[in-house]
Amino acid sequence: MSSFNDIGLTFVMPRRYGNETSENVRLIGANEVEAIRNKIRQEAYGTPFECYSVESAMIPYVDPDCFYLSGWSQTEKEVRQQKENAPPFEFTGKYGTGLMEEIHNFSVVAGYLAGKENYDIIHAHDWLTFPAGMAAKKILHKPLVVHVHATDFDRSGGKVNPRVYHMEKAGMDEADAVVTVSDHTREMVIRNYQIDPAKVYTVHNGVEPVGYPAAPPSSGGGERIVTFLGRITLQKGPLYFVEVAQKVLARMKNVRFVMAGSGDMLETCVAAVARAGIADRFSFAGFLKGAEVWQMFRQSDVYVMPSVSEPFGISPLEAMFCKVPVIISKQSGVSEVVRHAVKVDFWDIDAMADAIYSIIGRPGLKKMMVGSGVHEVKKINWSNTAFKIKTLYEKILSH
Amino acid sequence: MCFEFHCPVVLRRYRFFEINNSHYYYDDQQTAELTEKLVRQKFLPLVDLLATLSLKYAQRFRFGVSTSGITLKLLQHYQPYFLNIWKELGKLGGMEFLADTFSHTLVPFFHPESLPQQLELHKNLVEEIFGEPPRIFYQHFPFVSGNAEATAKRLSPGGIIAARRFAGNGRSGKERNDNSAGLDKKLAVVDQPLSHKLLKIHQKEHASNGVVQARHFLTCLEGAANPAAPRILFFNPVAVDGAFSNRREVFWEELIRSWLAREECRLVTPSEMFSGSPGEEAPEVSASSNGSPGMKNFWFQNHLQQEALGELLKIDRMMPDPDSRMAGEDWYFIQDMDHLFFMNSRFFSPLFAGKYFNPYNSPYEAFINYMNILEDYSGKLEKGKPEFDG
What we know:
The structure holds two protein chains of two kinds.
Chain A: E1 9-13, E2 25-29, H1 37-45, H2 64-69, H3 74-83, H4 99-116, E3 122-125, H5 130-140, E4 144-148, H6 152-156, H7 162-174, E5 177-180, H8 183-193, E6 200-202, E7 224-229, H9 238-249, E8 255-260, H10 266-276, E9 282-286, H11 291-299, E10 302-305, H12 315-321, E11 326-329, E12 342-344, H13 349-361, H14 363-377, H15 382-398
Parallel strand pairs in A: 1-2, 3-4, 4-5, 5-6, 7-8, 7-10, 8-9, 10-11, 11-12
Chain B: E1 2-5, H1 28-57, E2 63-67, H2 69-78, H3 80-91, E3 95-97, H4 107-110, H5 115-130, E4 137-139, H6 146-155, E5 160-162, E6 187-189, H7 192-203, H8 210-223, E7 234-235, H9 246-261, H10 270-275, H11 296-299, H12 303-318, H13 322-327, H14 329-334, H15 338-341, H16 363-383
Parallel strand pairs in B: 1-2, 1-7, 2-3, 4-5, 5-6
Helix pairs in contact in B: 1-3, 1-9, 2-3, 7-8, 8-9, 12-16
């Protein structure tokens, strides 16, 4: 969006670290807003009040590992209460136990900022910022666009967190336009949140071009690598990957399956691998970031994304950039924009295993998928996405 | 004027873990449904039309028919009543079957050893059903080996109609796209651009009414080089989207009426076209400038097609003697070139001609499924001769 000269962008985030790209964008970290919180509250709402989080084990995004690591304890609670009096707001910018409180505080800051400056459009990304977007709209009386990157139905496999659902729905109801990252998500927004289809627009994501690693993916006499890379949660379908591995390894020996990531189903997957008797051919790589991801792709012969419900899914596009053939679930947004991938239903482990067997064993398939895939993925870029969003802004402002 | 009739065999979803475990490859229900749909939407209306024209113009409406033995087998099995109607059309006179390979295949054009069996099986089946053996060979693909051409000429002494002017048809070099009308002895070439025009007219049937379209086509014909020379036109109703509608019937009736109304125009069967010339010389058949894509673009353009074709040829080489080719009926079904067509690089194009009967969502699916079947079949061959199925 920053490439458009006729748009002035102000990007408000919970916490600034100082290393963010800020070309043609005015960045504001909510943690840096120099205002005493009570003053903000008084300005925004005319009366001082205090907000407390109700402790609950139902914390979105937090798996058991993270929860225990967060060290949520009585001591921390006391420390946090002591900080209540210190300006400005503290934002961790992480999915921690104080998430709900941070969401609320962020909305207070957003409302405060909206009262200080004028903007033409407010654009809130995902439910965490929907209250902030709504607060800003209330002050500015300007159109609100909410951008749905995922819904709680995707994350929870249908067992939605009521608090999250209500925040999502409130934001979508209040919005003048709802942008979804795929038709898959658009249908979900219309069906599960009863949002007027006329104001729901699909704008597919793009992918950042990545430098292709110098060496080609593993080939020749070494073992073949089949990769799963993502959160090991119900949404991503990791157990299907384990079942597929079992099916393939019953026929092919020179193959290793790698599951990279962390999440609440990690232990379940480890147990499933042990039960299947394929532990010698199956590795858990842990959570990868930055260069480690590209290194993983570089070593992969096949990338599999068996997501049960994937609003978009950028990682297959990154794999395609790295010349890795991809197998993706039909229940993903990315399957709407790519052709040169094998698309399967997430539950169809036979089809997934079949595709892996063929990609590994039949060079023509890999050659064609890689050649056509790289060509295709270069056209799926963020510039197109930004242009579509700009067009939507213009449409909203013209009304 | 020649008409093509083609029914594809639908393969079932055959997974890799079935290799060496299961040797049944067909989706019988899908094949039956597709055959029924083709007969109902395309073949029956076309045969009705041909019968109407035959009755209306008596012996003046004459045409050729091209079909594989596999198509006839499928019709025998799933739509026998249609074959009876077709036979009745034959009794009206004026229809001549072209000799073809029994399978709808590329393999004999690479390995001519299998061509005699393919032609023989086809000839026997046509004769069994329609009472007349075909005499003119329809060569729908270039011979990769010069011996194959000699074999075809030997087996089909009446002449050869080539889909295009291929390399190897008495000439060297690549497939030719020129406009020359020169022909080898007993070899005539289909006018692809005008045949393609026929197809386009059917694809745009709603653009105008049938009479106007027929007159437009005649104008194109008159505007083509050497308009008075004999021409061979092919029409394949399966390549057109949707059913054969009334509007299309109007087009054909007007076209044939206009043609036959002209003194200088005659419609002849393929044999009559060749026998009309003295001795061994074929008539000077004119072909418009060939603007349609070469055969390679459809059948073995990309990596998938090349690998699958390589596997097919490998299997064909594994056949130890001609008798073994007869032993497994599966081989005649699974070598169908449609399976290569489904791997076409134009698969995702809205104009992809295979949409009407393509059972796959991508060329990759088509490849995976087909290669699993070929792997099983070659494994079966390696273990011993295939079982006798038919």
